[in-house]
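Q: I'm writing up a methods section and want to include an example of the input and output format. Could you take the sequence below and give the corresponding predicted structure tokens, formatted cleanly so I can copy it straight into the document?
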Amino acid sequence: MDDSSKLAALAVISPFLIIAILIFALVSPNGSEYISWIFLLAMIVISVIFLCGKGTWAIAGFNTMNDSEKSQYDTKKLASLVGLVSLTTIPLILSAIIESEGLLIFSIILMVCASIFVIVFCNKRCML
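A: Here is the clean output for your methods example:
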């Protein structure tokens, strides 16, 4: 199975899977907690995909570039960088689940520092 057929299959199955999960979460008594855990799991999966150097098609702005513009970037480094940024959302989601104000403050500081790091690192290291 090639990449385009995998993507097409994912595009067809994903909406139905998301709808089924949301219906389950809304019907159950602890629905909001389930939704938070689902988001946490989704961010972990997305982070792992990016950290493995895959998924550049999902990076906003990069997927709309033409091939000559894409060739100016190291796609593995760029995907890994997006994966690291995705990891910074995990403490934020956890702070909502366990209702920890200290973890919330830590995650906000972490995300601000990660944003500054991304701006500097991406401009200096991701370009070829």
